[in-house]
Input
Amino acid sequence: MKLYCEKCGRVEEYQVKAINQTFDVRGIQVDASINVSVCNVCGSEVFNRELEIQNDILVFDGYKEKKGLLTSKQIKYLREMYGLSQSAFARLLGFGEKTITRYENGSIQDDAHDNILRLMFSEENFFLLWRRIRKDMSDSDNKRVEAKISKEEQTTFEYNPKITTSLLFEMDSKGGLAVNGCN
Ligand SMILES: [Zn+2]
Output
């Protein structure tokens, strides 16, 4: 494997080394162990796009952890719980098309988006959103979700559309939430 080394002025063999470094992210000090490529001939660092992307995720995940936000890894895990693509998951949540892709690549989500994402760890919450949007989703997306959501959960909701999520709320006929006695 070779990369262009600026110091040597040509492509050279390189090796990958782990280094610990402190980064300033939005005024917060974040310690991260990142991987850099080092030229085998002169020992200077060479630019490796693939590693830069991975390092960004590591550093920003360090920040997210410090701030109590879901990390990129956790968001990916959450999405894969339901077998959805990044864009389908974003659509389900009402986010912009590329939003989940950005979060999984290190971008920092705001608190509101973090809260909505966090609620999706509950299949019941996921189902509330999926129920509303599945008619607009592709058959293959829906098939993957059906394979992931527990049968029990699907049956409960399919055959008992008025199931209460708490004592206060119930589903109305359109799948929305209505406050008992207030409609
Ligand atoms: Zn070199």
